[in-house]
Amino acid sequence: MPVSAVPVLGYTLSPDQQSLVLSWSNATAGIVLKQTDSLSPPVNWVTAPVVPVVVNNQYIVTIPVANVGNRFYVLSFE
C-alpha cells in the first residue's frame, strides 16, 4: 500500500476577522482534524466537533474566533 503524505493544514482569518478558517486538501482519504486545549504533556488530541465542507478540492472548516481561545489543531490519519 503506498504511503500518502498528510496534507498541510492551512489557516486564515475571515475578512471580518470573526472566524478562523482551516483548510486542507481532500486528495488523501482518512484525514481527520484533531484539537487540544493544551500542548503540555500528556497532550490529549480529540477529533474536532466540526463537519468540513469541500470547496475547490479543499476541506474547509470555519470556527468562530470566540470559540478558539487557546485551542490547537492538527491533521491526523485514521
3D architecture notes:
With about 80 residues, this protein is mostly beta strands. It has strands at about 10-15, 20-25, 30-35, 45, 55, 60-65, 70-75. The strands form 2 sheets. It has a 4-stranded antiparallel sheet with strand order 1-2-6-5, with no helix packed on it. A 3-stranded antiparallel sheet has the order 4-3-7, with no helix packed on it. A hairpin with a 5-residue loop joins strand 1 (about 10-15) and strand 2.
Question: Which properties best describe this structure?
Answer:
7 strands; 4-stranded antiparallel beta sheet; 3-stranded antiparallel beta sheet; 45% strand; mainly beta; 78 residues
Strand order of the largest sheet: 1-2-6-5
Order of helices and strands: EEEEEEE
Report the uncertain regions.
none
For the biggest sheet, the summary is: 4 strands, antiparallel
Number of strands: 7
Question: Which percent bin holds the helix content?
Answer: under 10%
Mean pLDDT: 91
Shape: flat
Range of strand content: 35-45%
Helix segment count? 0
- Classify the secondary structure makeup into a structural class: mainly beta
The span between the termini is 15 Å
Tell me the Rg in angstroms: 13 Å
